[in-house]
Amino acid sequence: MHKIEISAEIDLLSENKRLAEKNREFLAKNGIRAINIMGAIGSGKTLLIEKTVDSLREYKFGVILGDVICRADYERVKKHDVKVEPINTGKECHLDAHLISHVIEGFDDVDVILIENVGNLVCPVDFDLGEDFRVVMVSVTEGDDVVEKHPEIFRLADVIIINKISLADAVEADVEKMVRDAKRVNGRALILKTDLKKDIGFDEWLDFVRRVVQK
Fold it and tell me: 2-214: which CATH number, 3.40.710.10, 3.40.50.300, 3.40.1440.60, 3.40.50.970?
């Protein structure tokens, strides 16, 4: 039984990889950059998207929101005059390439697609969506050991955002420990220390997005 389960998982990931490559081909053909934003519930993913599309009006954004039920986030984001598509994953705890393939064809006229993945640090790890960049966002309120407890998702990240740093003292979190842990797991990632509600570190994020679009 154990061997059957392993075989099924391999087949699932292989099919996901095939569909991710098709997604990647579609994005490249249409000159679109896609950014997969992952992180736990409450880390600040939706706020990051809202502030980004408001701050970079020179680019045309599309937003794909994934959650078990994403009505609340959808209502938030659609107020920002941006093309947005919700994906309700039901019992699934991550987006996958198949789900993304159903919606990206409606985004063929945008410069950048921001994808908000389902809120956790475990399930999305193995599922390539066809994106160009992976972003992992955590909050100091999750504890300063969150990076060392979830190394795999950080190892694969292009950008690691440590958010809500203004609350670090209140929750007794060591931000520099989180930075050290991130660098130890992934020495190539861009690491940003932010507090989105206070605009701390946000300009550095915007610079990253601009570089992505201009490549």
Answer: 3.40.50.300
Please give the structure tokens belonging to residue 97.
């390439």
The edge-to-edge listing of strands for the beta sheet with 190-193 is 83-88, 61-67, 112-116, 33-39, 133-139, 159-163, 190-193
DSSP per-residue string spanning 47-83: HHHHHHHHH-TTS-EEEEEEESS-HHHHHHHHTTS-E
pTM for this model (two decimals):
0.93
Asked whether the beta carbons of 132 and 28 are under 8 A apart, the reply is: no
Question: In the 8-state DSSP scheme, what is residue 111?
Answer: S
Residue 159 parent element (H or E): strand 159-163
Mean per-residue pLDDT, 39-67: 96
pLDDT 10s digits, 109-128? 999 999 999 999 999 999 99
In tens, the pLDDT along 129-148 reads 999 999 999 999 999 999 99
